[in-house]
Amino acid sequence: MLEAHRTMIDKQSRPRKFPVAAGVLFGLGLGGFFDGIVLHQVLQWHHMVSSKYPPDTIENLRLNTLLDGIFHASTYVFVVLGLLMLWRTAHKSHLWWSSKLLLGTILMGFGMFNLVEGIVDHQVFGLHHVNETVPREQWIYWDVGFLIWGAAMLIGGWMLFRSGQKDSAGETVR
């Protein structure tokens, strides 16, 4: 019985590392929300499959709207999973984490979203492009800018995360 109690105390007192995956999931979700809300809805530059099914008929608009909704639901799941992972880790330990860890991992996830979405949806499958309201020959510039923005967020997030790791090394709340 005493040994079981010691094991439980040992597990609770062991320092827990920052949940990197939680921040990345937050970033993926926030990147998707930004894309869906700002680019799809507010600016109306594109929809999920607007290059393949232009929203110029009611049927195509319905299809694009449905797929935009499924896309938003998936980004919502990323944010919820990230929150659950962060809560589980934070709830079980008393650590001081640098804010740079969370912000850095969110930027990494946001950048990953842009890079994957930009390569897969824009370039490989051509489902849509960043700004379909400009002449077609200019689409590539917007697509490349989106990739550069994603790479900059990924690199900047990684640098911020590494800085936060140094700030948080060995820090605990007493």
* Contiguous uncertain segments of 5+ residues: none
In N-to-C order, the SSE pattern is HHHHH
Structural class: mainly alpha
Strand content: under 5%
Question: How many DSSP-defined strands?
Answer: 0
How many domain regions?
Answer: 1
Fraction of helical residues: over 70%
The helix count comes to 5
* Overall mean pLDDT: 89
Shape: elongated
Global Rg: 21 Å
* Terminal residue distance: 27 Å
Structure description:
There is one protein chain. It contains five helices and no strands. The protein has 174 residues and is mostly helical. The chain has one domain. The longest helix is centred in the middle third of the chain and has 35 residues. The mean pLDDT is 89.
Please outline the helices and strands.
Blueprint: H1 2-13, H2 20-42, H3 58-92, H4 99-124, H5 139-168
What labels would you give this structure?
elongated; single chain; 5 helices; 174 residues; mainly alpha
Give a brief description.
The chain has helices at 2-13, 20-42, 58-92, 99-124, 139-168.
